[in-house]
């Protein structure tokens, strides 16, 4: 993450694109055997496993995606835009990774987190947990290859649930909540040392949200990774020492108006109680920011005013959408449809771009 200028970005999941795909052009290519062979050789660590699980045509689909994505990256780079990816710490149950490499995963336990701000009974994710001893014996090859592929696709990436690399919550399989789980040690610095030896620098952002221990902070800082701040977490009356408080922000951080796990800015603002609203109004006043008739823009300006190196805003917040556009509600998968929101066609207008540019310039976040 070296030599990164003060900047900002828009957070939008790929499935949220209009149509939910890269575009019809992704399927207009006709593969030559040479391209398939080249891709198979370059991605030999994982592509054979994927083909055996996904079936006929799996590699052709990957080649088409690779072409379309590479074209999008070139288009973005020509316009000074970098692409920030996201690496989920765990794989899905029954995924190709788990089916083809069962020796790298534990049996009898699944992933989750203990009680937190989102759920009194914790979050029972149900993902398979890594056997870190087995991975260490193989010099963490699976993780090295996973992150190598990530950096082929993105300029940098956010490491989800970073604290899980220090210690993770293991829940006995078959439990109905995450409460019976317990902490187990993760790989710590050994994993990243191997990744660094094989791949070089570590252009990653540590998702260090939640209850973070000194050990997690030490690992993050030892690796030189920027951590995350969230504007919506900055106004909790009882958490005066929270790193999310604006007066505690530091430069080597990424500040988000909200992540995919939070409500939209509009939905969050409209749900504020009086104590939180007073803290927010005091912060706005100290920056000379007025909310006006569209308070979400005042909140975006507040986030962009942070000393944090990069400020990220959700696409939903640019559009001023309410809680109906929330991407994910952690710990409550049956309460609503998660990961279903899509950007309406034509929603990103020139006037919206001009307004975002004005706010970006005001905060000194536009390079060049």
Provide the descriptors you would attach to this structure in a database record.
368 residues, alpha/beta, 3 domains, 4-stranded antiparallel beta sheet
Taken as a percent bin, the fraction of beta residues is 15-25%
Please tell me the total number of domains: 3
Strand order of the largest sheet: 1-11-10-9
| N-end to C-end Cα span | 19 Å
- What would you call the shape? globular
What's the SSE pattern? EHHHEHEEHHEEEHEHEEHHHEHH
Main β-sheet: number of strands, strand sense, barrel status?
4 strands, parallel
Task: Please state the CA-atom Rg, rounded to the nearest Å.
Answer: 21 Å
Task: Count every helix, treating DSSP H or I runs of 4 or more residues as helices.
Answer: 13
Mean pLDDT: 92
Number of strands: 11
Uncertain residue segments: 25-31
Class by SSE composition: alpha/beta
Structure notes:
With 368 residues, the protein is α/β, with parallel strands linked by helices. It has 3 domains: 1-22 and 226-368, no CATH class; 31-81, no CATH class; 83-224, no CATH class. It has helices at residues 33-42, 47-54, 58-78, 96-100, 132-137, 141-153, 189-199, 214-222, 265-270, 274-287, 295-304, 315-318, 350-362, and strands at residues 7-11, 84-87, 105-113, 123-130, 156-159, 167-172, 182-185, 204-206, 227-230, 253-256, 310-314. The strands form 3 sheets. It has a 4-stranded parallel β-sheet with strand order 1-11-10-9. Helix 6 packs across helix 7 (189-199). The longest helix is centred in the first third of the chain and has 21 residues, at 58-78. Mean pLDDT is 92; it is low at 25-31.
